[in-house]
C-alpha cells in the first residue's frame, strides 16, 4: 500500500535542453503578463512538490474469521482489513500499515501510542466512549445474542446463564455486557476469558467446558461453519461498529474526520455493501 510521488524530472531536463538550443532573444513583458507568468511558475512548482504522506499504524488481529485473519497463504485479509485498504487508497495524505496482536492487547496498545487506531469490529458502547474516540460513521451493525451448543435446550436467554460458565474475550463489548450483568445480579454468571480464537469457542461450548457465550448475529457462520452452535433468546444489544482512536488527540481527531469522509464515499458507491456481502455473508452495513 506504499504511496509514492514521482517528480517530473524528465520534463525539467527536456526544458533545459530546449533552452540551450534556442536563440538569445529578449522579450519585454507587460506588468500583467509578468504577474500571470509568476502565478503559472508558482503553480508548476507546487505541482512538482512531493505529497507529504503520514504513516498510520492500524491495530488489528489475526483470529477473527472473515473479519481480520490470515488466509491459507498467510496474507492478512477480511472485512475490516480490506475496508481499511480501500480507505487507504482514498486518503492520499496517509499511508496505513497494519500491526497485528491479540485482541486483548489492542486497547492498551492504542493508549500507549503503539498504534494510531483500531480496526477490529469495535462496537460502540458508553464504557468505551468514556475512554476513547470513535469516528462518526459506522461501517457495520451488530445484534448480540446468547450463543450455545446446538444440542443445548436449557439456555434460552442471558438469565439462563446464571450459575453457569460464559466464555468471552477480555476487553470485548460482549465481556462488558456480561460484567455489567454480573454487577446487577450479584456475580451470577461465571465469566471465563479466552484468547479470542474462533475454533476455541466451538470446542469449549460443544465439549461443555463452557455453557454459553455472547456474539453478533452474523458471527456463527464465520466461526462455526459446521453449524455446531446456535444463537438463542432475544437480542441483548444492538451496536454500531466503528474505528477507535485515542481521546483528546488532535491528530487522531483529524484522521477520524478524514476517514468519515472516505467512509461516506465508500458507502455511497456501494463498495461497503459489497465488502460486507463478500466477507460477512450479507449486508450488515445498514441499520434496520
Strand-helix topology:
Blueprint: H1 9-20, H2 31-48, E1 54-60, E2 63-64, E3 68-70, E4 76-77, H3 79-90, E5 94-100, H4 106-111, E6 117-123, H5 126-131, E7 132-134, E8 140-149, E9 165-169, H6 173-184, E10 190-194, H7 198-206, E11 212-216, H8 219-223, E12 229-246, H9 250-268, H10 271-280
Parallel strand pairs: 1-5, 1-6, 9-10, 9-11
Antiparallel strand pairs: 2-3, 3-4, 6-12, 7-12, 8-11, 8-12
Labels describing this entry:
288 residues; alpha/beta; nine-stranded mixed β-sheet; three-stranded antiparallel β-sheet
Tell me what you see in this structure:
With 288 residues, the chain is α/β, with parallel strands linked by helices. 38% of the residues lie in helices and 26% in strands. It has 10 helices and 12 strands. The protein is globular and about 65 Å long. 33% of the residues are buried.
